[in-house]
Design brief:
The chain contains 17 helices and no strands. With 395 residues, it is mainly alpha-helical. This is Sporulation integral membrane protein YlbJ.
Length: 395
């Protein structure tokens, strides 16, 4: 039955591509523009830096220092603090990638990795303040409300996940001497154990990061096309009828379905409606926590190379979206009752600053993407030649 269903869906997708080739091409190009203008250049520095930090042992050293914070709060080793902070700063699916790396290196157990991946994948501040607050809502002030609910919900999900398989033993025990000297010793021994030279480590950081981002780009384009084909065939209207029993306004039906597939598209459609602002903010908060099936597919692909189960992450997405939407009710009530408009600009960038930053990505993103892709190809070709030469000498 599973084979029949999957085959039928793939066949229908192929037929839709043939029937609506122009719409599919435009949707694919929209996904490509998003990837090479914003996603690739914004995530690549974080990915490369994280690879270097792991190789140099810095993550192990920071883990020794943050063990006493991460273990009581989230029941994960101290090295999870690095994944948590970097995941929030860089955006999805960075947290899943670094959690998978920690699992492959034996720094976390399977249960700890499943707890960690459930709350370390969040939207970046650039996306919340730039794309959503300014780009969609045309108000930088709302970015603070959305960010507060999003990261607050993420924190509460992490607290709840500490009870997931809480009786399983940990691979990493807290140090009795969690001082700077112990952290440096841990970092030094980890670097020696890694054994790679600086050149080899930098090459690995570039190739691994670019490979991961190529996969991310493929998923972005795929789900962009799928969403557009659902609109062209009218299937999205059939799916949206299932939201009627939830008493959700009709204007939100298609945007919610679009957002469940590809988050950015759905959020843009929600903010284009004439429904009350609070309802829009609640649904946007839910979609940010749910991530959309496009991002979930990216994370599932990353986790597939490990023994980390996808189910805890998927359940946490529903919880995160629901908690963030409920938090928005209380936060928005405080925002309106206490007239915080005069205070919030102290906590967030101006609209002109965010627009100039987004314009910078649009102008400089594509060249950076092309240069890094060329660099990755050069490194891989060079390594293949070195391997071929080595094998020839042995023979």
């Amino acid at each position: 039955m599973k084979t029949l269903v999957l085959t039928s869906l793939t066949l229908l997708f192929a037929i839709a591509l043939i029937v609506y080739p122009q719409a599919a091409l435009k949707a694919s190009l929209r996904g490509l523009d998003l990837w090479w203008e914003v996603v690739f250049p914004s995530l690549l520095p974080f990915f490369i830096t994280a690879e270097l930090m792991i190789g140099f042992g810095l993550v192990h050293g920071l883990g020794a220092l943050s063990e006493r914070l991460m273990r009581p709060l989230f029941n994960v080793p101290g090295c999870g603090g690095f994944v948590w902070v970097m995941g929030m700063a860089s955006g999805y699916p960075a947290g899943a990638k670094w959690t998978a790396d920690l699992r492959k290196n034996g720094q976390v157990s399977r249960a700890e990795a499943e707890r960690l991946v459930a709350f370390t994948n969040a939207s970046s501040p650039l996306f919340i303040f730039g794309a959503i607050a300014v780009g969609f809502f045309h108000s930088a002030k709302l970015g603070f409300l959305i960010a507060l609910c999003h990261y607050g919900g993420n924190f509460l999900v992490g607290i709840g996940m500490r009870y997931y398989k809480k009786d399983e033993t940990s691979l990493e025990r807290a140090s009795r001497n969690p001082g700077l000297r112990n952290a440096f010793d841990t970092m030094h021994s980890s670097r020696l154990q890694d054994g790679r030279s600086i050149g080899k480590l930098m090459g690995d950081a570039v190739t691994k990061s670019v490979d991961t981002l190529l996969m991310v780009g493929g998923f972005i384009m795929l789900f962009s096309v799928m969403t557009e084909l659902l609109k062209q065939t009218g299937m999205i209207h059939l799916v949206s009828h299932g939201l009627t029993w939830l008493q959700i306004p009709y204007n939100f039906h298609i945007p919610i379905v679009s957002g469940m597939l590809e988050m950015t598209t759905g959020i843009g459609s929600i903010t284009a409606t004439s429904e009350p602002l609070l309802a829009q903010l609640m649904l946007v908060s839910f979609l940010l926590g749910f991530h959309g099936f496009s991002i979930q597919a990216q994370i599932a692909s990353i986790l597939a190379s490990t023994d980390i189960s996808f189910k805890p992450y998927a359940m946490a997405r529903i919880a995160h979206g629901t908690i963030a939407a409920l938090l928005m009710i209380g936060v928005y009530e405080i925002y309106e009752r206490w007239s915080l408009e005069s205070i919030l600009p102290l906590w967030e960038p101006t609209q002109d600053q965010i627009r100039s930053l987004m314009l910078f990505f649009e102008q400089n993103g594509p060249p950076v993407t092309i240069i890094m892709l060329a660099s990755m190809m050069f490194i891989k070709v060079k390594r293949n030649r070195e391997k071929t030469t080595h094998y020839q000498r042995l023979s």
